[in-house]
Amino acid sequence: MDSIHPTEAAAACRTCHIAAIPYPGRGHMNPMMNLCRLLDGRDNITVTVIVTDEWLNLLSSETPPPHLKSNVQLRSIPNVLPSERSRGDNYTEFMNAVFTKMSEPVGRLLDGLDPPADVVVADALLLWVVDLCKQRNLPVVALWTESASVLWALNTFERLHAADQLPADFSGHKALAYLPNVSTTRLANFQMGATDFDILRSFVRKYYWFRTTAHSLIMSSFDEIESSAMDEIRSEFSLPIYQVGPLIPHMLLPASPSLPDYFSWLDSRPKSSVLYVSLGSFLPISASQMDEIVAGLAGSGIPFLLVSRDSKLCRPDGVEGSAGLVVPWCDQLRVLRHPSVGGFLTHCGWNSTLEALYAGVPMIAFPLFWDQEPNSKLVVEEWGIGRRLKDKDENLTSELTASKVKRFMDLDDEESKCMRDRSEKMKEICWEALNAGGSSSQNLQGFLDQITNKCC
């Protein structure tokens, strides 16, 4: 058999066109966009990201802007969903719209792409992608944007569902004993603020489409931080799995844009003295809880930067009578990387957790919803790089908040010192995974090699 010269082989391969379809929520949009940013500038790949008109406007107006190169483009479908800004008020309505109204306009857009897509990378929550790709004979890759630990927990739920063993009350049900250093996680930890699991039950019916249908699975995690859960997943999932995380905007950090005024405020503060506070962009906490947290922050005497959409809090001088500054939005990863930031009060969304890992910043955990409670267990118990704002039997008060914040930010406290040392070690592990030759870097290249070979 005649050998093929490398230049001839390269010539035989055409550019591979990837259509990326994110779930239209901030916690899912960000990792998909960051995955696409990692594909910027690659000669043999073009990417079309399909979003709603609302998300096209949101991404285009971001500061800093999306920073997409010529081989990555954004295309939009009409706004067939409730707004991103209000989806937390009625999540059931939003999810139902995603499941029933997106498929048709996305299919029309796919049909009009020139050149046609060779492969679809879709958020694992988009159940209708299976039929859409089957109709067009397109391979589909699933992107899982939560932790590997949560994926394994939901796999347990799916098995119980398939065996018709789901109880009405999960509070005393089977423990998910797969993390050696973490206290018992139960399915009740995934309670979504409702009295039952109707959303989860309906979701799980088709949830694991990617186990049998997907070409492969991409995960926004990395091998070194969730090895126990990944061992369990790989023992049951037969498809190729690529952990390429953390899918956070670390690739934007070398740039030096004109920085907002709050960076000047951070510059004026001593090293590791500021507590950064952000409780996510999805579900608002109650007004009474926010009042207690803000009063506690003000009473702690600790300088803080708080992200809040509440116009009553967003004043140029911050919270009256305190050392705090309140802003409606910030460049979170760049803030976490600022030398004056010494802690992060967080809801423990997976993206925020990964950004704190990357920055080497310890966390005060205040989970609100869904996967945030299991994530907080990783932070506090498995990795030992955080504390809880309150225990289960404690009421959230300003006094409790002030006490917890003061101790957490005490750089002379021995427990705090150990926690900060562990955070720095986790940062090193995270950076090693992303660097050339690291596990995430190699996994991404392995995925791309498999995809682009289909275009040769």
TrEMBL record:
Segments forming a coiled coil: none
Name the record gives this protein: Glycosyltransferase
EC numbers for this chain: 2.4.1.-
InterPro entries for the chain: UDP_glucos_trans (IPR002213), UDP_glycos_trans_CS (IPR035595)
Gene from which the chain derives: UGT87A1
One Pfam short name: UDPGT
Keywords annotated in UniProt: Glycosyltransferase, Transferase
GO MF entries: quercetin 3-O-glucosyltransferase activity; quercetin 7-O-glucosyltransferase activity
Keyword Glycosyltransferase among record annotations: yes
Keyword Glycosyltransferase: yes
Family per similarity comment: Belongs to the UDP-glycosyltransferase family.
Source superkingdom: Eukaryota
Entries under CDD domains matching the protein: GT1_Gtf-like
